[in-house]
Amino acid sequence: MTTKAYTKDYPRPQFVRDGWLNLNGEWSFRFDDENAGEREKWQERLAGTHTITVPYTYETQASGIGIEEFHSKVWYSKSVHIPKEAEGKKVILHFQAVDYFAKVWVNGVLAGSHQGGYAAFSFDITPYLAFGSDNVITVKAEDSDDCTQPRGKQRWTKDNFECFYVQTTGIWQTVWLEFVAEQRLDAVKMTSDIDRSTVSFDYRVHGLETAAGKVRLEAIVTLKGRPVKSVSLAIDRPRLTVEIDLVHEANGPWRKCLWSPQQPNLYDVEFNLYVDDKLVDKVFSYFGMRKVSIEKSKVLLNNVPVYQRLILDQGYWTESHLTPPNEEAIIADIDHILEMGYNGVRKHMKIEDARFLYWCDVKGLLVWSEMAATFEFHDRAVETFTKEWLEIVDQQYNHPSIITWVPFNESWGVPSILRDTRQQKFTEGIYHLTKSIDPYRPVITNDGWEHTVSDILTLHDYVETGDGFLSRYSGNKEAIVNKETTCNQWKYALADGYGYKGQPIIISEFGGIAFQSDKGWGYGHQVVTEEEFLDRFEGLTRAIKSVDYICGYCYTQLTDVQQEINGLLTEDRKPKVPLDKIKEINLN
């Protein structure tokens, strides 16, 4: 089951148009270690030394290059034919992600630049094109080993170490063109309210000032092919909000149409923009009617407590690293998670491909969306982190599967947060900025320990046995939240100056069990047999579930990642133990 306008490999499935062109594939490529490119005008004619397969980075085997050593500046070039029939349209060049700073030229003319390795961005390149001809798109990507830029699990040294892996440099998600009208929708922010049976659409409309006539916007909502509501209104300003009542008697009680893991119902919506009754833009989207709230130390989904059984997922593949090899691989990972009895995923230190979130929406997998960390606290780190995080929250807002925002993890980037008031205030600021864009989802301010303001209190603990876990947590809630003891033998649950406010408590990292190997590491001693693994896994999982004040957990982790070999699956997605046995433990 998919949404009405699902198109395989479409890079932005929350906002679909018909007219688009995928630019993935072979591009000319060149390293620029001397930073000579702009001085020598490579933007006008790039003499490539390699051919690279976009969107895979040069560090990966999938790219066709497979050089893992760091190069801070790289160039790409591709000739693209723009059909004569497209003349009169605006041509938008989209990049789903380029790490870290991108400059883009079209036929030698600078079209724009963007900073941030995880947020999508785009440029209107119409003024620089020759229609009916070949046009050259050139990209310079600059990266660094600077720890004040959000980098997540990307190493900043020559070799991998601890839980940090080969860096990602340059284009690592889809590049594509879109052919649109001057008058068009730039975005629609969709907010459901299940208590009032409404959904609101916050429109951003482009080109109103040049419209030669009256502009009208129509929204048509359907559910599983059946009509629900249709509204039409004249518009005279670029931003406006419309609220729609979704009670639809003909289709039965609307409350059966909520989005949840058990029933991931999605409403299709078609947006049509007219100028003097001529259709100029058609966009397909979807939304889910669902609510996330917190009451009495519980997380509620649709006003009912939900026990979260999450798995940590870093989203790495052997041949393509951070880039999913294809859409089928995305679907397969989600299916594996569901097959093991998990109802959610903590997407760790990575902003994932929009298609991943789409399939989580469709299949009903809960998602914690987590920002890639910086690793130093500095004015520049505050600036770069804040700018990119706000872009990401805005871009991911409409996905019903996302139920939690996680801007910080384990005090990374804020290493002295326990006592440093500047670092504490930074996390408070990010919390409140996130809430200003999205007041409807919980925000976890420092996942793992040393929380400041946070809607959920999350704790990381890699104790090896269930008995060990119980000795630390059973009956010890007050001691932990009042900082009379640490939560995992070495970190306090809350930073100095912050008290427990009755938040839900979740063990958001545990386990990390690895089979015996000399090629990598896991947490604690490595196990030898399947029976030993399952005994330890079951003991820990059952211990967590038996503690009454804990309302969820997140197991580390879905797959092996390079030197970290503690996945339930190998890096090439082969199960280490029968998945039905994992499911039985999770569900019983």
From TrEMBL:
Segments forming domain Glycoside hydrolase family 2 catalytic: 294-584
Highest taxon above the source species: Bacteria
UniProt key word Hydrolase: yes
Coiled coil location: none
KW Hydrolase (keyword) present: yes
Keywords (A to Z) from UniProt: Glycosidase, Hydrolase
Domain Glycosyl hydrolases family 2 sugar binding: 22-141
Any matching Pfam family: Glyco_hydro_2_C
Domain annotation Glycoside hydrolase family 2 immunoglobulin-like beta-sandwich: ranges: 185-290
PANTHER family: BETA-GALACTOSIDASE, HYDROLASE
Family: Belongs to the glycosyl hydrolase 2 family.
Protein name per the record: Sugar-binding domain-containing protein
Species in which this protein is naturally found: Paenibacillus haidiansis
